[in-house]
Design a protein that fits this description.
Length: 490
């Protein structure tokens, strides 16, 4: 299958490209994104066939339907990484929390957040293509916390790929920082910046646009790629777990085959929700996708009013920082699917020039057929964490907690909901400890201990071990020095 572009073709790039081309150079004509030319139709027969399949078997068959230009042994090797999740026989457990609410836990991988679901296999795929072509790639990542550790973990010691990861010093949790600065491999460079996440992000954008930087990379025979969710190489692995979660509900006799469910997704860059949307289009029985947000509620406004408005909004820091995003990249792929490339280009250019676009009434109606949305603030989120723990015996992180509000406000109570849990309690422990016990401003290590006691849970060894692991990535610099530092590393 080939990939086409959300904003049409500028006649400089190819009309359509292979999967490998789309993932090596993910930016399409006019700054658009690559999308599959058509989606495979799976239908109920596919679901029936995989009633008793393992996650990996389901995944391999779904990927095969995409007919991508990746060798089977590479795909198999990529999927084998799910064997290292907590339960090799089921990397994504789905747990009943209360009547009609099931939580699909996407955080059982090495960095304890859902980025592993896609980045783990993606690392193998990207490195294999680079080796095959005898090319070297640099992955630049700016992270506020979860993408960085997951990208470092997956590319660690992989051939033909180097990673430079920028993070705001003081702007991540202790656990997230330690996950990055203790990563010891020659092909990884972690750089702390004096500043906030936006400074790291802007420095990276500046670098990506710099001709001088590109020239220096060329001299070193290195090409740039990206590991964020604009890369379809990540999205493809995010379709699988939606299908798996549905099948888990059938297996648990919670629904009958063919019964529709809500997918409730805590959203930032919209990669997770997009995976659910594609699964639906490929034949998964879905009633609606519910988009949950925090105070950065631009997606709620878009889905409720048709207006995407960046003019009055600045990102605010919240208790669910992985969702502190206003420019949500993957919404563009939905626009393309619903309204086509001409209209998508028009809307995205309006966003770039005017910081604003507005769907017309007909378009808004179409969007609302597939999506509903609500947002949850930090105090509400903490109340849901406490309440769900005390009344249902289920401990959730602040990102997952945003789903609890929209579960109440957006769902028909007759229809079952699959909500996605995107991080383990260990990743955001100070907020959770505060919710459960009222203790304030705890360090991660203390918060972990108190939650462990209250909830009677063990701190997983990969988290516990971080606090005694040697810090090997010591670089903390001003943002003006980033380019020099990266070139030195290469
Ligand atoms: C990345 C992330 C999200 C947001 O996912 P998107 O696919 O970007 O919408 C939500 N929660 C956590 C913990 C994350 O790391």
């Amino acid at each position: 299958m080939n990939f086409i572009q959300t904003r049409g073709n500028d006649e400089n790039k190819l009309q359509s490209v292979t999967f490998s081309q789309a993932i090596l150079a993910p930016i399409a004509s006019f700054g658009g994104l690559y999308v599959p030319q058509e989606l495979p139709e799976l239908g109920e027969a596919f679901l029936q066939k995989h009633m008793n399949s393992s996650y990996k078997t389901l995944a391999a068959d779904m990927l095969a339907r995409f007919e991508i230009d990746i060798a089977q042994d590479v795909i198999d090797k990529a999927l084998d990484l799910y064997d290292a999740f907590d339960d090799a026989s089921n990397p994504v457990p789905v747990v009943k929390v209360k009547e009609n609410l099931y939580v699909s836990e996407l955080y059982h991988g090495p960095t304890r957040a859902f980025k592993d679901m896609a980045l783990q296999p993606f690392g193998v795929v990207l490195s294999s293509i680079a080796q095959e072509r005898n090319e070297n790639y640099l992955i630049l990542a700016a992270t506020s916390g979860d993408t960085g550790p997951a990208a470092l973990e997956t590319f660690k010691n992989r051939a033909n790929v180097q990673v430079a990861c920028l993070y705001p010093d003081g702007g991540t949790s202790d656990v997230q920082r330690l996950q990055m600065v203790t990563e010891d491999a020659e092909n990884l460079k972690v750089i702390g910046i004096h500043g906030v996440f936006d400074d790291a992000q802007n420095a990276l954008k500046h670098l990506l646009a710099s001709e001088e930087f590109k020239k220096a990379l060329k001299e070193k025979n290195v090409s740039l790629s990206a590991a964020n969710s604009v890369n379809f190489g990540r999205i493809i692995f995010q379709i699988i777990y939606h299908i798996h979660s549905y099948l888990e509900l059938v297996r648990q006799n919670a629904i009958s085959m063919g019964e529709k469910v809500y997918l409730n997704v805590p959203s930032g860059n919209f990669g997770n929700a997009l995976g659910g949307y594609y699964a639906w289009k490929m034949g998964l029985p879905v009633e609606k996708i519910i988009i949950s947000s925090n105070e950065n509620n631009i997606l709620t406004k878009l889905i409720k009013t048709g207006k995407y408005d960046l003019r009055e909004n600045a990102v605010v820091g919240t208790t669910s920082p992985a969702m502190d995003i206003l420019k949500s990249s993957n919404v563009e792929r939905i626009l393309f699917d619903l309204f086509g490339d001409v209209r998508t280009k028009e809307l995205m250019q309006s966003l770039e020039v005017n910081n604003f676009y507005e769907l017309n009434a007909e378009e808004l109606t179409k969007l609302q057929v597939s999506f509903d949305a609500d947002f949850c603030n930090g105090e509400e989120g903490k109340a849901y964490i406490k309440d769900t723990f005390e009344n249902d015996g289920y401990l959730m992180d602040p990102h997952t907690a945003t789903c609890m509000k929209s579960f109440e406000t957006c769902s028909n109570p007759e229809i079952k909901t699959i909500a996605y849990s995107t991080a383990e309690w260990t990743k955001f422990s100070p907020v959770i400890a505060n919710a459960l016990t009222g203790e304030k401003d705890a360090q991660d290590i203390d918060a972990l201990k108190s939650i462990s006691k209250v909830a009677n849970l063990d701190i997983p060894s990969m988290i516990q071990g971080l606090f005694t692991k040697e810090v090997v990535q010591n670089t903390i610099i001003e943002k003006e020095e980033i380019e020099k530092e990266i070139l030195k590393f290469l």
